[in-house]
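FYI - complex with manganese (II) ion, inputs then prediction.
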Amino acid sequence: MCVANGYARVMSSDQAEPSEERSLHVVGDVHGHRDRLVAALAVAGLTDEDGDWTGGAGRLWFLGDFTDRGPDGIGVIELVMRLSEQAAAVGGEVGAVLGNHEFLLLGAHHFPDEPVASNPRTYEELWQLNGGRAEDMERLTDEHVDWLSGLPTVALVEDHLFVHSDTTAYLELGDTPEEINAEMGRVLAARRPDYWTDRMRLLFRRGEFLDPEDGPEAADEVLSRLGGRWIVHGHSPIPVVRGVEPWEVEGPYVYAGGRVVDVDGGLFFGGPCLVVPLPLAESEQSE
Ligand SMILES: [Mn+2]
């Protein structure tokens, strides 16, 4: 990794507009598939084949759900932590918003035996039921916990509102991205099971922009309150949402009148690891 490499790449990929444009990519739910993530990032030119940052001043955002279901969740966390440092050192940016699985994992770490409110299970049981893997929990360090606990829940990057879940529930947490992130920061710091359950369950909601009639309106409400032109989310795998086979997914799914972009390819059950360049081309923006 060196500055010259990243610089050369940015210059060569931006020949049409060699000015100050910075690339922006987004990745949805990785769920432990570290090797497939590295391969996809390498194809996109953002890393080399060892998973070291080659994206120069470019920006890469992750939409949460790093762990569970797949083989190497901690490897994914460590990769993203390292990429954040490497990118920052050369003027790039690697960021992430929290998904429901980060709250499941951290809840199971902080208070495994506490019951989850309005649920017959403990935190550890709920995490296991959702694909939690013992190897990940054994390898989870204080450093990982601190890093995850410092991540935002919502990020507005240019006109893109990055969230994990396709829900209006974020509006119950605050009126601005800053308020929402502050509220979830308090949850993560307080480590109180009751408070945790109450907030975590909001991130399990899904599908709230899909209705052909109400979906666009729900998306507009979120965008008008939190900012941005597009909601970009993971959490609901495109094959499930569209009713297609995982191998049929070739790119993001744009819906709700072009306001919402699903980038979760359904990696954990055979879908692609999508590394989506933003903004989408005009031709991709309509439904
Ligand atoms: Mn999720």
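The longest strand covers residues 24-27. The domain at 23-280 is CATH 3.60.21.10 (Purple Acid Phosphatase; chain A, domain 2).
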